[in-house]
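Entry for the shared binder. Reason: the reviewer on the internal report wants the predicted structure included alongside the sequence.
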Amino acid sequence: MGLTRSARRSVVAIVAAALLLTGCAAGSAPGASPVPDASRSASAAPSAPPREDVTMTEAPAPVLTDPEGTLLSAAAAGDAATVSLAIRAGAELEARDGRGRTALLLASAADHVEAASVLVAAGADPDALDDRRDTPWLVTGVTGSVAMAEVLLAAEPDLTIVNRYGGISIIPAGERGHVEYLERVLQTDIDVDHVNDLGWTALLEAVILGDGGPRHQETVRVLLEGGADRSIADRNGVTALEHARASGDDAIVALLV
């Protein structure tokens, strides 16, 4: 049986309403906020300000009223930090005190190893002579400091420069019985048989001016092992062996025969 016109209109209205409801469900609910597009949000977000590179700048050089005087006094006192400060302030490395001594010579004579290390690293001269013909290197033979010798050897000192007696560093070391120092320095190309203005080698000086005790016995042994010539005589023609016999130093005589 066919539908009346009125019934057909009601069916059409119901179908239209159903279609409308289906479209709303597929889209956004009325009044709801739209879901943001991630790609659009990322591009629309404000970018972070560019990072500024931090440039490290060196601290300004200190200002000293007397950089050379500060350098010399600090080296003599073994104040390595102030030595470095004075160098940064522009102190002349080879500045001299009233006796012609450089900062490195002052540090070496007092065995201030750290201060000497700072000076050597800055380029200080290990061969700078003072008024008494001492150099930073030569005085290591007097002090017998192996640590200082190591610092200065790195600066390649001239091992042939002589002191006021015409001697090189191993001669006063022989006199004073600096065994460890001699052991280290004899590993270099220093002349073990150098003769000073008195006509003495390091071996002769160890026998003539030494006390004949254990330290000087060991000194003689080290010098002999380092190649010292026991036959070299002094200006009077007396050898180290003859000096040892005359002094009654039997232990040294036994080493020299």
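Summary line for the report: The CA atoms of residues 17 and 150 lie 103 Å apart.
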